[in-house]
Glutamine--fructose-6-phosphate aminotransferase [isomerizing] (Actinocorallia herbida), 371 residues
Amino acid sequence: SAAEKGGYDAFMLKEIAEQPRAVADTLLGRIGADGRLHLDEMHITDEQLREIDKIIIIACGTSYHAGMIAKYAIEHWAGVPCEVEFASEFRYRDPILTKSTLVIAISQSGESMDTLMAVRHAREQKARVLCICNVNGSTMPRECDGVLYTHAGPEVGVAATKTFLTQLVAVYLIALYIAQVRGTKWGDEVFAMVQLLGSMPEKVEKVLETMEPVRELARSLADEKSVLFLGRHVGFPVALEGALKLKELAYMHAEGFAAGELKHGPIALIEDGLPVIVVVPPRARDVLHDKIVSNIQEIRARGARTIVIAEEGDDSVAPYADTLIEVPAVPTLLQPLVTTIPLQVFSCELATAKGHDVDQPRNLAKSVTVE
Ligand code: G6P
C-alpha cells in the first residue's frame, strides 16, 4: 500500500532514500569512543583471527559484488589472501579449506540456497564460517559460527539497494577489524578509515540530493538497446552491479567490464551513440585515474556517448564526458558507497520510464531458495 511505501511510488525508491540511515545503523555501536572497532558478534577470538591464513567469500547476485569489493579491502588493510566466488560454483569444484580458512558468506536474506549449501560444505571441511546478513534469525546466521548483521531494515524491492550499501559497510568493518587485531602496517590508515566511515551517512545523503540530472538522463535513454559499464579496482564490481541492476529492472542488455580489459575485446562493441557509463577512481589514485581517463578518450573517439561518474571537482574528465555525474570525494576503497547510488537511481528511473514495476521485476525472486 501507499502507506507502507512511506509516500514513495515504489519500495525501491523508499529503500534508496533510506540509505543514509541504513549505513548509520550498520555502524551503530561498532566503533568505540577510542576509535577502535568492536565486533564481538563475529564470535572469533583475537587468537583465532591471527591464525587465519586465507579468506574465501561466497555469495550470489548483488551480494557477490559486495564480496568482490571485500577482497580489495581485506587484502589491502588486513593483508590476508582473499578469494571470492559465486556460491553456486564453490562446492562443485574442490575448494581447499582448512581450520585456518575463514569463509565469509554474504547474503541479504540468509536464505539463498546456493549460498546456504556452500556454507554447509565449508563447515563440513572444518572451516570457520561467518556471515553478513540482513535478516535476523534467518537460516545462515543460525548455521554459521558468527554473524555480522547489516541492520538495514526490511528490504521489499527485489533488486537490492540499501542492503548492498550496508553489506559494503559490513565488509569494511570486518577488513578493518582484522587489520586492527593483527596489527598490520596500515595502523594509522586503519584508524583514519574507521573515523571516515562515521562520515559516510552524510556523504550518501549528499549524493541522493543531486540525483535529478541522473533521472533525466535515464529517461532520455529509455529506448536504447544496450548500455555498457566500465570501472577499475573497486569501480569494477560497481560497474558489474550497475549492469546487473539495469538487466534486472529494465530488461535491457547491460554489461560491466574491467576498464583495462576494454582493449582485449569489449572495445569492438563500441559504436556511434552507445551509452557507456564509466566509474572513475579518485584523482589521488593518479595511475589508475589517468588510465581510465584515457579509456574514456578511446571510447569517445569511437563514437560512445560517455556518462562519467567522478569525484567532484575532477576537471580532467570533464572534457571527455558527455554527461558528468559528480560524487563526494572519498578514499578509493570507500568510493563504492557513493558511486553505486547514481547507478541505482539510473536503473530505477529508466525501468519506470519503460513502464516496468521496479519492485517486482519479471522472473526474479527476492530470495532464491532453490539451487
Ligand atoms: C536474488 C535477488 C538478488 C540478490 C540475490 C542474492 O537473486 O533477486 O537481488 O542479490 O538473490 O540474495 P541474498 O539474499 O543471498 O543476498
User: Anything to note?
Assistant: Residues 17 and 208 are 7 Å apart (CA to CA). The beta strands are 54-59, 82-86, 101-107, 128-133, 146-149, 226-231, 253-258, 275-279, 305-311, 323-327.
